[in-house]
Amino acid sequence: MTIRHPRLPALLVLAGAALAASMALADSKPFYNHNQAVEGANNMAFTTRDSGSAAMSPPTVTGLDPQSGEAGVMVRIQGSNLSGVTKVIFNDSLEATFNVVSDNEIKCTVPAGARPGPIKLATPDVAVETPVPFTVAYE
């Protein structure tokens, strides 16, 4: 037994057209990229900024100053792409209080209970460790 609806063929045609249109939109590239110049009306160039999820470059650490100290000491971490850092971690679990001074510098305080080892800098996308371990001095 077959049941036919009088509007079914028209609905199938509309559904097919909607599916084709959504697939075409999904395959198309956006008209702008991060900080890309786009030609506007009257040949006036303007810049747009994509607020999408483009990943930032990972942080790179080039130095620690000082390279040793006791809990409570302020440590200066130098490098690049540091402005996206959201956590500074000692011993894989001790979060330090820190301040991002610039894209090239972070100042953090060695937390109580820290042990010798690399310092981990975490962003929402990646975590990196300092190439030189921090040596914890005990009182």
Shape: elongated
SSE string, helices as H and strands as E = HEEEEEEEEEEEE
CATH architecture of the domain at 60-136: Sandwich
Can you list the strand order of the major beta sheet?
Answer: 3-5-9-8
Q: What number is the mean pLDDT?
A: 74
Q: Which class of secondary structure composition applies to the elements?
A: alpha+beta
Number of strand segments: 12
CATH superfamily placement of the domain at 60-136: Immunoglobulins
Main sheet properties: 4 strands, antiparallel
Low-confidence stretches: 11-15, 17-53
Write down the Rg: 27 Å
CATH fold annotation of the domain at 60-136:
Immunoglobulin-like
Strand content range: 25-35%
Helix proportion: 10-25%
CATH domain class of the domain at 60-136: Mainly Beta
Distance between the termini: 89 Å
Helical stretch count? 1
Describe the fold and architecture.
The longest helix is centred in the N-terminal third of the chain and has 20 residues, at 8-27. The chain has one helix at residues 8-27, and strands at residues 37-39, 45-47, 60-65, 68-69, 74-80, 87-90, 94-95, 98-102, 105-109, 119-122, 127-129, 135-136. It is elongated, with a radius of gyration of 27 Å. Strand 1 (37-39) and strand 2 (45-47) form a beta hairpin. The protein has one helix and twelve strands; from the N terminus they run αββββββββββββ. The chain is α+β, with helices and mostly antiparallel strands and 139 residues long. The model is unreliable at 11-15 and 17-53 (pLDDT under 50). The protein has a domain at 60-136: Sandwich (Immunoglobulin-like), CATH 2.60.40.10. 14% of the residues lie in helices and 33% in strands. Strands 3-5-9-8 form a four-stranded antiparallel β-sheet, with no helix packed on it.
